[in-house]
Specification:
With about 80 residues, this protein is of the alpha+beta class. The chain contains two helices and four strands. The chain has a four-stranded antiparallel β-sheet, with helices on one face.
């Protein structure tokens, strides 16, 4: 399969899932720094144990997109990411 062509800069969304909404937001703020982004609550599990946030931002390049992905996914507050 051929990789899709992505024209940069472009808007990109990341979905992060964890157990504490405040910790997830703090992780995003720390990692994203001065980048412009939007964070919104995406979903909560039925039992309330898990919460997911959607982060939308402009990424300048594939390297930038991947760097943000890796940084978010390696943060201890983030349990699952896509």
């Amino acid at each position: 399969m051929e990789r899709p062509k992505i024209n940069y800069p472009c808007e990109w969304s990341y979905q992060i899932i964890g157990t504490d909404e405040k910790e997830l937001k703090e992780a995003a703020v720390k990692i994203l720094g001065n980048n412009r982004y939007k964070i919104c609550l995406s979903n909560k599990s039925r039992g309330g144990k898990y919460v997911s946030l959607c982060i939308t931002m402009i990424v300048a390049s594939e390297e930038h997109r991947n760097r943000v992905y890796i940084s978010l996914s390696e943060h201890p507050a983030v349990k699952i990411m896509f």
